[in-house]
Amino acid sequence: QLQLVASGGGLVQPGGSLRLSCVASGLTLDSYGIGWFRQAPGKEREAVSCISSSSASRNYADSVKGRFTISRDNAKNTVYLQMNSLKPEDTAVYYCNAVRGVYSYWGQGTQVTVSS
Hints:
mainly beta; 7-stranded mixed beta sheet; 4-stranded antiparallel beta sheet; 53% strand
């Protein structure tokens, strides 16, 4: 069964860190570009970061540049999003997305809450 599972979310204080993981089963991620997206209550889903299949290209939303780092370990079929210096406005459900050509797969989302 083809599945993307996002995990690692939780409740963290402002300034804290979390590392999200996106693990695939039923497909091999090394030929897919991977993106992390987030959706806050009442807002549209927005792109946070993406990484090419070779890791040669990585992009970040302006709001997270310098604080978030995307990486991948193809041997583990996993993509990570290291989130540092978290702010309350980072609170959202975070989703991973795998894309190759016309194929696009979404994970189920993991909740990140930044609050004191």
